[in-house]
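Anyone? Bumping this.
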Amino acid sequence: MCGIVGYIGNKRAAPIILAGLKRLEYRGYDSAGVSTIDGGALTMAKKAGKVADLERATTVSKTEGTIGIGHTRWATHGVPNDVNAHPHADSSDNIVLVHNGIIENYVTIKKKLTAQGYAFKSDTDSEVLAVFIGMLYKTFGNFEQAVRTALCEVEGTFGIVVMCAEHPDMLIAARRGSPLILGVGNDEYVVASDAAAIVSHTRQVVYLHENEMAIVTRNGFTTKTILDIETDPVIEEISIELEQIEKGGFPHFMLKEIFEQPTTFHDGFRGRLLVDEGNVRLGGLSTVTDRLLNAKRIIITACGTSWHAALIGEYLLENMARIPVEVEYASEFRYRNPIIDSSDVVIAISQSGETADTLSAIRLAKANGATVIGMVNVVGSSIARETDAGVYLHAGPEIGVASTKAFTSQLCVLTQFSLYMARTRGMSAETGREIATALEAIPEMIERILAKSDEVKEIARQYADASNFLYLGRGYNFPVALEGALKLKEISYIHAEGYPAAEMKHGPIALINENMPVVFIAPKDEIYEKVVSNIEEVRARQGKVIAIASESDDFIDTVANHVIKIPDTLPMLIPILASIPLQLLAYHIAVFRDCNVDMPRNLAKSVTVE
Ligand code: F6R
């Protein structure tokens, strides 16, 4: 959620940290701050608002010092103001840290420290950790030991980078439940919560493991567990290109990512789809082939948009492979004592690979003996590393907070996984070829839909002032309705609900009047006529109908107020195409309402807290 950057080397730290924080702002943008050590003393600049506000309001960019830490925050404890912004220092201004995560037992620790006479400036759990380390430093006189001892005492999650004014040549980074990556340069090191802040400095990185810490100096680094057991760091190469994390001429990351979908979708099946054989090769699953063949049931767990992809995955797998599937919100699954055993396959779907609830859900599944598979976008992320096997989405970095290209890539991977499972369970090569051929044609179809962006924009202009929206679809397209509604509410703040179209008459129909726009996903499939009846019901009550319909459908224009046509394809692939105009509709409405599309209020990318 929050973004963390730390630097130690021979260059001025502040400009490097500020540039890194700007790249991480999508992870949180309530407040920002930077601290360096200059001439043996801490410098500190913090401000509510964005990194640009911090730069405007303080002299941070002029700060000297070749070691420093910075943070961009998504508030958990305490309102987003200057005082609660990170970094947080101990009471002697000797120890300072940035923290991502939640210290669950901070109240207990705070009480003990208060009893010893320590005072606190902020309402944050992070300051409690800084003061705690400061107290332990006074006791031991050893920086590393103070950090280790504190981390063994705290409950909850942390990704932290800590500095000590008395040790101006050392940064300590540690993680539990919150990602941290150490970038290894030439006599310089950048620690960050996300590779985006590292890639302009070096491609050599070490992913810290759970309960691992890195002790970094200008001349090298060591890693060990917080229990003081040395570990062997593995230096890996990150594959992200700089242009992938820049806007490339688009006004917003979200629009750029919507327009990347022909490519990202293609990347999701390149080298995997075997059209002639009507099959799929998923190398990342080769180690669990037998367990997949013997699976009695599949449970898919995820959150938010990824959960919507999971619902479509359920329809795909049950229809194609005839295997029972259950879809669970990760946050519910982990707390409801579910029945799981070694014959189950649990699939975790996640763009970031760091979502705390999804991570906990897979740990629970593993503890109960299930085979756990990840469908994850971020390479090397926690979920990717903790699963038994997996399939990467290959969508490239997704910076826009509202997920778009990762969703269609999830559908790409789920369709291929379903085809692979179906072929092992008796689907004919001929049927497999039909599906594979249709999947291969999708990128070109997405291009054709994107060419209609201005058409969608004109519809958006007419409904930008609406207070409510209803999204309706059936079968494969019910989850698309949910996803369309989520996209709209998160970036435009218009209340929107998604429903199975036939459920409308059981309640939501009461909401329909001349002020209610209703988006129907109404492709020409076997339930088309039923959906058209639902459209008529809305029109009879003066509701305004925006229909996402098949190119081959000439009739729908006579019943809907607006029609956005998408190419004809197999019903199972319609969700991929139908979601594109819904992304564009949400985007254009949000822009008409002057909303900050890439940084919607209260949201942050990668939800690493429960
Ligand atoms: C919505 C959105 C969120 C995420 C959810 C799960 O646009 O982005 O609902 O889908 O927080 O995140 P991941 O996929 O990273 O696990």
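Late reply, but here is one note on the structure posted above: The longest helix spans residues 405-424.
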